[in-house]
Amino acid sequence: MARPRPLLALLCACVAALASAGAPNVAAGRKMVGVYELNKGGFSIKVTNWGATVTSVVLPDSKGNYADVVLGYDTIAGYVNDSTYFGALVGRVANRIANARFVLDGKVYHLFKNDGNNTLHGGHRGFSQVIWTVKEFVGGGDSPYITLYYHSFDGEQGFPGDLDVYVTYELASPYVLRVRMNATALDKATPVNLAQHTYWNLGGQGSGDILHDTVQLFASRYTPVDSGLIPTGVVAPVAGTPYDFLAPTPVGARIRQVSGGPGVYGYDMNYAVDGEPEALRKVAVVRDDASGRALELWANQPGVQFYTANLLPNITGKGGAVYHQYGALCLETQGFPDAVNHPNFPSQIVRPGQVYKHDMVFKFSF
Ligand SMILES: *[C@@H]1O[C@H](CO)[C@@H](O)[C@H](O)[C@H]1NC(C)=O
Ligand SMILES: *[C@@H]1O[C@H](CO)[C@@H](O)[C@H](O)[C@H]1NC(C)=O
Ligand SMILES: *[C@@H]1O[C@H](CO)[C@@H](O)[C@H](O)[C@H]1NC(C)=O
Ligand SMILES: *[C@@H]1O[C@H](CO)[C@@H](O)[C@H](O)[C@H]1NC(C)=O
Fold first, then answer.
1. How many independent structural domains does the chain possess?
2. Residue 296 known to be catalytic
3. Does 257 sit in the ligand 2 pocket, CB within 6 Å?
4. Is 183 a domain residue?
5. 156 an active-site residue?
6. 117 alpha carbon to ligand 2 midpoint, in Å?
7. Which of 90, 158, 189, 197 could form a disulfide with 111 if both were Cys (CB 3.0 to 4.6 A apart)?
């Protein structure tokens, strides 16, 4: 179905009320939340303008059986209530900012603390928890695409300046998904770090854990963290550590050697992707031998956060599937975590008139 599905009036009212709580310029009830399907010869994805979220990616396996390979919910209400960032576009600054504070041009900015003393993924109502405007939508044809727009206001979640943000999801050629993001600072300098937070399970959402998936990360270095998952500032070689995925390696092979948050094992780590920081280059390859599905990710960002859903609670998702720990993996290309507080990390500051650009290309095979 290539037509937006209007939601129940009740849900719209609820969503509009949430939006207007933080953004007084959003006229209650004016913005509709819908689900939009892009389809190119059997390859299809669904996107909602709630959080610019990817809600489904349907792919065949090597035997021709189709499955939805991303975690999510059956209803928008599920995404409104979500705390895992399933499929969402996160910002204004993805990942953690230590102590919810930074200094820019001599001025101290205080943000929302939504991760202990830190800010995570833009605060408690970041870009993943707002209604985006659908600017363009072409559901079928040669290159189906949808462009979503969000205007982030000066002071939103504590961040400085008005910011125009766009994301386009496009099915570029058979089994290629392109994601293009840009953000323009209108009046003040601000950090910007967007990330696409899809949870992938190439065996099919809800099919079990991803510990047998083989992962290759084109990253010789990573940014070790302290116990609060804040980078120490060191950019260290992966060689000789369980973080080394330069050669294809099963996710589970060394997972019990790495801490993935309080009391759990798992990967939740930013890698410094090899190559020119702003060039579109190969970041990762994931293979699920059981289904034959594979994903190759290209991007133009300095880093990629590799997360193995260590903290995924037993959530009921699409079609009644229950998602457990390690039930998916995320490959969030982005700048380095807490870069605003680490002058040696690539800068995330966008000055008025400057444009932030983030491109991702997912190439699927089976
Ligand atoms: C909201 O999320 C919580 C925590 O994941 C979950 O327990 C609850 O069932 C969800 N409620 C709805 C209505 O989805
Ligand atoms: C937050 O900071 C306060 C003051 O420094 C400290 O006492 C507290 O333990 C910190 N909380 C966490 C969760 O780190
Ligand atoms: C940002 O993306 C939108 C949608 O593709 C495009 O119309 C706009 O020109 C882009 N802005 C910049 C400054 O590149
Ligand atoms: C989640 O489900 C698994 C498998 O059924 C179970 O072992 C585990 O205790 C559950 N965890 C929580 C937090 O309920």
1. 1
2. no
3. no
4. yes
5. no
6. 6
7. 158
In the set 37, 156, 170, 332, the catalytic residue is 332
Q: How far is Cα 156 from Cα 186, in angstroms, rounded to an integer?
A: 14
Question: Where do the DSSP E strands lie in 41-194?
Answer: 43-48, 53-60, 66-68, 88-90, 96-97, 101-104, 107-110, 119-120, 133-138, 145-152, 163-173, 176-185, 190-191
pLDDT of residue 42: 83
Ligand 4 atom 4 nearest Cα: 324
- Whole-number mean pLDDT of the chain? 92
Read off the CATH number of the domain in which 128 is found.
2.70.98.10
**Rounded Cα–Cα distance for residues 163 and 150 (Å):** 8
pLDDT tens-digit map of 33-47: 999 999 998 899 999
Ramachandran angles phi, psi of 89, nearest 5°: -95, 115
- 114-171 pLDDT, tens digit per residue, is 999 999 999 999 999 999 999 999 999 999 999 999 999 999 999 999 999 999 999 9
> What sign does the dihedral 49-164-306-45 (CA atoms) show?
positive
Query: 193 CA distance to ligand 1 centroid (A)?
Result: 28
Q: Note whether 190 and 92 are within 8 A (CB).
A: yes
In whole angstroms, what is the distance from residue 284 CA to residue 282 CA?
6
- Does any domain span residue 90? yes
Both tokens of residue 266?
């798992």
Q: Which residues of the chain are under the pLDDT cut of 50? A: 1-29
d(CA 339, CA 335): 7
Asked if residue 320 belongs to a domain, the reply is yes
Write 164-167 long-range contacts (CB < 8 A, 24+): 165/91, 165/127, 165/194, 166/135, 167/52, 167/89, 167/132, 167/194
Give the Cα separation of 219 and 201 in Å (integer): 22
Nearest to residue 267, comparing CAs of 297, 307, 322?
A: 307
Task: Supply the range of the domain harboring residue 207.
Answer: 8-365
